[in-house]
Write a structure and sequence with these properties.
This protein has 254 residues and is α/β, with parallel strands linked by helices. The protein contains eight helices and eight strands. Strands 1, 2, 3, 4, 5, 6, 7 and 8 form an eight-stranded mixed beta sheet that branches. Helix 2 packs across helix 8. The longest helix is centred in the N-terminal third of the chain and has 20 residues, at 3-22. The protein is globular, with a radius of gyration of 20 Å. 34% of the residues are buried.
């Protein structure tokens, strides 16, 4: 792959991501006047990945989407300040130190949204380069402590070597095997995650194909570096995942 071709490919990818992220249409949701939940706080996500920025990215995307669902959504800054000052909590993994009821009392909301980031990564191998984003959520009524909604999904976008007809089936089989094995017993130790169905469900997006393993690896690395610099790393996959998860989120009454 020549430098000119590499630059053009990465530029096209970045342009597509920026256009997609800026041009997402506002979701039209019809309010539900019978929903007793009027206010929501989006809690810090439990991070089961090695990416330190991923939980913040997904949380902010969810917070932005919730504002189309007819709720009073507590500002993230106020949520974080209350968690830190009242509970000494700064990470999603620390939320088990308290209860939804106590969180609701201090945050002044009717429900809290717990989130779990399970994958936020780009995996590069000789024949299989893949971008993976997976998350799960549960909405808890702070008055009863009961979960009133759950959602989970993974999105996988692959870049394969050798073209559609050269080893494509083997590559796809490898990808599906990796998806099934991802997490394993580790996820069973995460409080609250076992109650969320669909954690192991994946959507496979349309794959791209490169003529050689070197081209696939170089393009994958270049895309990762550039999108990280522009703060849109895995943005298309994250948006696709949240489109699916949030499609069943209950509408608020406001």
């Amino acid at each position: 792959m020549t430098f000119k071709k590499f630059s053009s490919s990465v530029l096209l990818i970045l342009t597509a991501i920026l256009l997609a992220s800026c041009g997402l249409p506002a979701i039209k949701v019809t309010k539900n006047p019978y929903n007793p939940v009027r206010s929501i706080a989006v809690l810090p996500l439990y991070n089961a990945t090695n990416d330190v920025d991923g939980p913040k990215v997904i949380r902010e995307l969810v917070d932005g989407r919730l504002r189309n669902y007819h709720y009073n959504v507590k500002p993230l800054k106020e949520v974080d300040e209350t968690l830190r000052d009242k509970f000494g909590i700064t990470l999603g993994s620390q939320l088990e130190l308290t209860t939804p009821e106590k969180l609701g009392e201090e945050l002044g909301v009717d429900a809290v949204l717990y989130g779990y980031l399970l994958n936020f990564e780009t995996l590069t191998t000789i024949v299989y380069n893949v971008k993976k984003v997976r998350a799960a959520f549960r909405l808890v009524d702070v008055k009863t402590g009961k979960t009133v909604w759950t959602g989970a999904k993974g999105v996988r976008a692959a870049v394969s070597m050798g073209g559609r007809n050269k080893g494509g089936a083997a590559v796809e089989a490898l990808g599906e095997s990796l998806d099934k094995d991802a997490g394993g017993d580790i996820f069973k130790t995460i409080p609250g995650l076992a109650d969320i169905p669909g954690v192991n469900d994946w959507k496979k997006t349309q794959s791209r194909y490169q003529k050689s393993a070197a081209d696939a690896a170089i393009l994958s690395l270049g895309e990762q570096l550039v999108t990280t610099a522009f703060r849109v790393y895995l943005r298309m996959e994250s948006d696709e995942m949240l489109n699916i998860i949030m499609s069943s989120f209950p509408a608020g009454p406001l």
